[in-house]
Design brief:
The complex is a heterodimer of chains A (about 375) and B (about 150).
Chain A (H helix, E strand, L loop, with lengths): L1 H19 L1 H37 L4 E7 L2 E3 L1 E2 L2 H6 L4 E7 L1 E6 L4 E6 L10 E5 H7 L6 E5 L5 E10 L4 H4 L2 E4 L1 H8 L5 E2 L1 E6 L5 H11 L3 E5 H39 L3 H12 L4 H32 L7 H4 L17 H27 L3 H6 L1
Helix pairs in contact in A: 1-10, 2-8, 2-10, 2-12, 8-12, 10-12
Chain B lengths: L1 H18 L29 E5 L4 E4 L2 H10 L6 E7 L6 E3 L4 E3 L5 E2 L2 E2 L2 E3 L2 H10 L5 E3 L5 H4 L7
Antiparallel strand pairs in B: 1-2, 1-3, 3-4, 5-8, 5-9, 6-7
The chains are: A alpha+beta (about 375), B alpha+beta (about 150).
């Protein structure tokens, strides 16, 4: 196939031409890769966090009802559940008990939750994989806790669970209801909040409005609202990082534009010689196309690969403090690798394609000039 | 010996006969399109409606409105086994012929204004008040004129 052979020779020529100006091209690829790396890291990180939040919220109840006293979250009487149960569209209401416990020994904040059904009974707890690692404990060990009165009590670990999301298992401890009440000094008949099952998504805002009217001191929270809040939070955080890095991005664009659009006298001479020895204008343009393609593709691939390693293997140590923020109370956790093909494609079309196209126009302009005129200047 | 086989056969066939009167709801695939509007029924699980014929064949619809349109103009001559619609509040399948339908409400289905089904008349009354419905119709009261009223037709 002559066409294929021709391209092969052209690429061969382009590669050796690039190697002749080793220093300049290496610098270009490095800066280019750095910009792609930063952009891809932000993308990967926020995508993975967002997916993590979605995983956490997938099992969350459709509506949560809290009680507010003087604008602050307060314990809710379980009798409120009976009033809510009569609202049409609510198929289930149940009180939920949960809270935070700061462990001074391990210096970590744990989330204690009473599940709907706890099979192990009093004196037992079920802990997440992350908690087990932090406290270096295994099944049948005991974990000490200080009650609200300052007494020391301990629970036996009946089970250690793992989950898809490390955010969940990192700090979660499941406990029986009587143990929870005695640990935190909670009276009978009150709960942290109420969780509702409302099957029809269209009816959820109506149910929330009815609860607000029926029980004015409560605050109903719809799951979709939490998802939207998380979304805007992550958008805001990645936005801040992008603004900070915008300067670097602009500098690169100027640098790349300069490199790609303006041809040095040396390169014009080279094109003149190529034309003089019989190259067609189309050959010169093809050669420049391959040059732009090779440089931007190399930078793009290495940038994306480095970003993947950075985010999923080193927990994005470079800008973790800016992006995570709200998660510092958690013991260390790793994000589950997740890459969205759509985002990769967006990044590709914003970097590789414009760069490659930008290199072609000046090459075409140089290639249509008479070789004699180029060589004489 | 022959009587023993007869008894065995009778015992074996009894459950089949008992089940013949029941048609459980089908789970529509992406191939099951609404015969009235052509939309894929499975894409709208909250409004899914289906007619199951006595011979086991079925048609699925993206909403009760299209189910009624089909029912009112069909010429297939088949015997209907059961008609299922989904209760708005519980999203469970209910027998359409025992259901109540609220017209003209502000809840829109895949084809715009919809007849919203309920198994319980009290539920239908509350819904009508909450969502500014026009009237509550029993299955047999849904006629072509009702369907073509300006606020129930698309």
């Amino acid at each position: 196939m002559p066409g294929f052979q021709k391209q092969k020779y052209l690429i061969d020529f382009t590669l050796s031409a690039l190697l002749r100006r080793k220093g300049k091209n290496t610098a270009l690829v490095l800066v280019y890769a750095l910009v792609v790396f930063v952009l891809a890291s932000v993308l990967f990180f926020t995508q993975a966090l967002r997916r993590e939040a979605a995983l956490v919220l997938a099992g969350a109840p459709e509506i949560v009802v809290q009680r507010l006293t003087a604008g602050r979250h307060d314990l809710i009487p379980e009798s409120y559940a009976d009033a809510i149960r009569n609202i049409r569209g609510v198929s289930d209401v149940s009180p939920r008990l949960w809270g935070y416990y700061y462990d001074p020994v391990f210096g970590a904040n744990f989330t204690l939750l009473v599940p709907q059904e706890f099979p192990y009974g009093r004196g037992n707890i079920v802990i997440g994989q992350g908690v087990a690692e932090v406290s270096r404990s295994s099944i049948d060990n005991i974990l000490p806790f200080w009650t609200h009165e300052g007494r020391l009590t301990s629970f036996k670990i009946a089970e250690i669970f793992s989950s898809d999301s490390q955010l969940i298992s990192a700090d979660l401890i499941l406990i029986s209801e009587p143990d929870f009440r005695s640990l935190f000094g909670l009276a009978e008949g009150v709960a942290t909040n109420l969780v509702l099952t409302v099957k029809n998504a269209k009816e959820r805002p109506i149910v929330a409005a009815k609860i607000k009217k029926l029980l004015p001191d409560t605050r109903p929270i719809i799951r979709d609202e939490i998802l939207r809040t998380y979304d805007s939070l992550f958008n805001w955080r990645s936005g801040i990082l992008l603004v900070v890095l915008a300067g670097a991005g602009l500098a690169f664009i100027i640098f790349a534009w300069d490199k790609a659009t303006g041809l040095s006298a040396e390169e014009r001479r080279e094109i003149g010689i190529l034309k003089a020895i019989g190259w067609e204008t189309s050959d010169v343009i093809l050669m420049k196309f391959w040059e732009g393609g090779i440089i931007s593709l190399t930078s793009f691939l290495s940038g994306v690969l480095l970003a993947y390693v950075h985010v999923f293997f080193t927990s994005s140590f470079l800008f973790e403090p800016v992006l995570k923020g709200w998660a510092v109370i958690y013991p260390e956790f790793k994000l589950v690798p997740f890459v969205d093909a759509f985002h990769i494609a967006t990044l590709f079309f914003l970097t590789v394609v414009p760069y490659t196209l930008a290199t072609i126009v000046p090459a075409w302009r140089a290639a249509i000039v008479d070789p004699d005129a180029v060589l004489r200047t | 010996m022959r009587s023993l086989i007869a008894v065995l056969l009778a015992v074996l066939l009894l459950p089949v006969a008992a089940f013949a009167g029941e048609w459980p709801p089908v789970v529509p695939s992406a191939k099951d399109k609404c015969p009235v509007c052509g939309m894929v029924s499975a894409a709208f699980p909250d409004f899914l409606s289906q007619i199951i014929f006595a011979d086991g064949s079925y048609v699925t619809f993206d909403g009760p409105k299209d189910m009624f349109r089909y029912l009112l103009r069909r010429k297939d001559g088949k015997t209907i086994g059961v008609i299922y619609v989904k209760d708005y509040y519980s999203l469970n399948y209910i027998d359409a012929r025992q259901a109540f339908f609220v017209t003209g409400s502000d809840v829109y289905g895949p084809m715009g204004k919809e007849l919203i089904p309920f198994s319980d008349k009290e539920d239908a009354k509350v819904f009508k008040k909450d969502h500014r419905g026009r009237e509550i119709l029993h299955f047999k009261d849904v006629t072509a004129e009702k369907l073509n009223q300006p606020d129930t037709s698309p």
